[in-house]
Amino acid sequence: MGYRFATPAPEAYAYPLLIRHLLQSALDVRSPCEIVGTDGRRHDYPEFARRVGRLAAVLADHGIGPGDVVAVMDWDSHRYLEAYFAVPMMGAVLQTVNVRLSPDQIAYTIADSGARLLLFHADFATLVGTIEGQLPALTCRIAMHDGSPVGDMAVAGDYETLLAAGSDLFPFVDFDEHALATTFHTTGTTGLPKAVAFSHRQIVLHTLAGLATMAGQPDHQALRRDDVYMPLTPMFHVHAWGLPYVATLLGLKQVYPGRYLADRIVALGENEGVTFSHGVPTIVQMLVEALGERTLERPWKMVVGGSALPGSLCDAARERGIMVFAGYGMSETAPVVSIARNDPGDSLDSTEHCCLAGRPIPLVQVRVVDERGADAMEGELTVRAPWLTMGYGDDRHASDALWRGGWLHTQDVVQVTPRGDIVVRDRLKDVIKSGGEWISSIQIEELLMRHPQVAAAAVVGVPDDRWGERPIAFIVPVAEAPDLPTILVHLSQFVRQGVISRYALPDRLIVLDALPRTSVGKIDKKALRIGALSVAGG
Question: Which of 48, 129, 406, 489 has the most CB atoms within 10 Å of its CB?
Fold first, then answer.
């Protein structure tokens, strides 16, 4: 006779994994910390919860109900954090709009989501006025600002005024944990941005896995209850890597910087005691330059992702008290897949280990496959986790390609070391095949940046009749007139050492004032390829 499970009690609570329970946890532990807003306000967690309730009530008063999409265009602010909770908690869907896209692309993403209400910062008032004719589903606009009113534009009201006037809090209730909570659009090098979406269950599980990961890190990489958190990844980009949800669940002091201005971020970080952030290498470089020769009095831990973390930048940041370490993920993975970490016995300043993509976080499975889908030592990274997007909206062809074989395909070429670290070799589209050999653009870039005259580097492949493809390198020099022959000699030493093949030496070095960037701070290699072809004359 098999084991008989007890019949559930009639009033047993079937706990759904909802975003509102993340906030409730912070309230239940009675966090004494405050949230520092972009307009000078400071409030505690009970007031934060009241503001979330008032925002949801305001949205309901303006016609928003379950399943409706609310779009947000704002800098990293306390208001954005409130929308992270209020919108999905009321059963609506939060759309985080990438404000760095072109106006036509922004209009496309808002129209594609079917957003009915738009919360927008006054800085984007002109843009909103320009594109509103392309947004047929939009019925309401609410303005937000940090001291600069929106002007004469007709809106349903001002964010703070509407919240202050509301006395009733929205009555949040339970619903299906598989209900959609958020949506946004990925940006690629071809075609229109693709919509991805995530459910309450997925975001809660990602939050818990992120919390477990950061708790298990060594002290100089961990996120603890006594840390002070500031996001430096745009909140429109993959839920700011999910860290605002983790910080809220822990009840941390949170500091919101608004628009990214290097000197202001450094001053705000020092004045508020910030100890934990995250961002792309461009942000780290910006902070390094803003600090100059100064070293922070209090170490500032920072997860770096979006693109490879160069060893030279890692060292420069650490010299100034910014303890950087790499993470890996993508928009479709919500986003964290892996985090770099030091093992017991590792040197705390091990640049090599801290610059790797790291090891899978809890509940992430990884598999490296070749072009046929068979297991391989080096090949494309494929992943499984309970928080991965299920597809690209109505784009069935792209969704099928993303999930072929039942694993999400990242388009990244990787190796996995014997100790389990993921080493990203390149993007599939960026790998250069020359003379029958595969060349990693990331590896050549990292070697170039070891030269003291090179501040930044990017390598792309261009067609070649004899070799198939040849690498071209773009560098941003430290000084105005770099010694290019010396830089090539520097790179040639790695051929003699067997680190790279002779085929990997770039055919030419092109000096730029700055590398082109995408809307989320990654190097725009599509633009560089066009530039390289122009230089090559074809």
Answer: 48
